[in-house]
Amino acid sequence: MATVEQLRERINLRLEESFMGISEQVADLAPEDLVELLNQLKLIEAATVLLMLPVPRGIELMDQPTMTRRGAILEKLDPTRTAMILEGLSADERTDIIQQMGLTERRRVLSKVSNEVKVELEHLLSYAEHTAGGIMTTEFVRLDPTMTVGEALKHIRLVAREKESIYACYVLDPANGHLLGSISLRDLVMAEMDQIVTRVMRPKPVTVHADDDQESVAQKIAKYNLLAVPVLERDGSVVGFVTVDDVIDVMIEEQTEDILRMAGVEPGALDKPYFDNPILRVVRKRIGWLLFLFVAGTLTSKVLHAFESELASVVALTFFVPLLIGTGGNAGAQTVMTVIRSLSLGEIGVKHAWRVALRESTTGLLVGLLIGCIAFGQAYWVTHDWHLAVTIATTIIVICVWSTTVGSIIPIAAHRFGVDPAVLSAPLITTLVDATGLLIYLTIAKIILDQI
């Protein structure tokens, strides 16, 4: 049997005969291997391969967590076939795929799905994309409070095939749909068959609201170690639930965005495979931050120009500029990443700002003292001038304290004003510390060396 790599090479030949026999070979691949193949192909090629497969196989592939570009691939298929695949997926999965499609294709597909699915999709699409309502599924097991455990288990068997998950069930008030309690399948199996479910359920379970941000939902599921969490509307009625596998997708998405922002790249630059991103699109996503950092970097030139005479009289000062500003930038970047991580995990908040600043400045002082001792020895060994060595060591200490303090305050301040702390990325902190570090260095040098 051909390997994934061999199949990819055959498909990339773009010859008529290259597709002969492909359908039989891809049909024998494990879903994970077939997804790997589709992810490596161009959109039209992936759609062609998907078209060769039966609809149930297409549903299985679109349900794989590692499958990328699902909406873009399905846009290439006939709307009727796309609708058949979507109807076989869970509510949250098909909503996610529909959101990835253009408005024209979305309308075409919605016209082909059943009325029941169309109403459900339109309801879910009414929620903002990055909220609990936007990632939830409506296919959960509802239990009546009058049911016994035996009746509940029988009901679960009847509806299991239609539900995304049966491990978490919810007891609802039949009058208004309000949540009375949650009960796991494990609790039901272990309970006596004639017990009323209200005696077995857990009253007042952890819940989220439909308009809650998806990241806070992920944090809540992680904090309470839940398999799923019910989603409530403003009137308190249960409209769906978010499962742990949805949360994993959210965490990957949020971490990817944070990493991109910390690298000075706009989110969206990596939402497609590497070679599927047009170069002009990549440039557009990167140029904004690079221009901003370039302009901010001119502060460094201004500082150097202001101390031109001092640098001309003591040329040895320039030897240590890269060492000093590099150390300050690295120390600030370490602090920024540590603080952003703690903010995202909820370990610190705005109320902890001064404690964090004090802690990080103390850390910067101790680190600066240790590095400063080494810097003193290095500077004296290079220049044989102990005055200059004292200048370098003193500067290292001050820059480390300054950069760690700034690196701790800025992310918290951004969080306070509703700005994503990851936007204030390590490159920005590095650029800021470069300019201020030079100012600190040359000011200290002017004070110490002018006394000689």
Instruction: State Rg.
Output: 30 Å
Q: Please report the total strand number as a whole number.
A: 7
In spatial order, strands of the major sheet run 1-2-3-4
Second-tier CATH architecture of the largest domain: Orthogonal Bundle
CATH secondary-structure class of the largest domain: Mainly Alpha
Binned strand content? 5-15%
**Element string (H = helix, E = strand):** HHHHHHHHHHHEHEEHHEEHEEHHHHHHH
Structural class: alpha/beta
- Overall mean pLDDT: 81
Contiguous low-pLDDT stretches (5 residues minimum) are none
Give helix % range: 55-70%
The backbone outline, from C-alpha atoms, is: elongated
What is the number of helices? Answer: 22
Specify the CATH homologous superfamily of the largest domain.
SLC41 divalent cation transporters, integral membrane domain
**First-to-last CA distance:** 81 Å
Mind summarizing the main beta sheet?
4 strands, mixed
Number of domains: 3
The CATH topology label of the largest domain is: Tetracycline Repressor, domain 2
Task: Describe the protein's architecture and organization.
The strands form 2 sheets. The chain has a 4-stranded mixed beta sheet with strand order 1-2-3-4. A 3-stranded mixed beta sheet has the order 5-6-7. The model has no long low-confidence stretch (mean pLDDT 81). Helix content is 63%, strand content 6%. The protein has helices at residues 4-12, 22-27, 31-40, 43-52, 55-62, 70-75, 79-87, 91-100, 103-110, 115-125, 132-135, 149-159, 185-190, 197-200, 214-224, 244-262, 279-306, 308-313, 321-344, 353-383, 386-416, 426-449; strands at 141-143, 168-172, 179-184, 202-203, 208-209, 228-232, 238-243. Helix 8 (91-100) packs across helix 10 (115-125) and helix 20 packs antiparallel against helix 21. It has 3 domains: 4-126, MgtE N-terminal domain-like (MgtE N-terminal fold, Alpha Horseshoe); 141-243, CBS-domain (Roll); 274-449, Orthogonal Bundle (Tetracycline Repressor, domain 2). The relative contact order is 0.07. It is built from 22 helices and 7 strands. By secondary structure, the chain is an alpha/beta fold. Helix 12 links the parallel strand 1 and strand 2. It starts with a helix and ends with a helix. The radius of gyration is 30 Å and the shape is elongated.
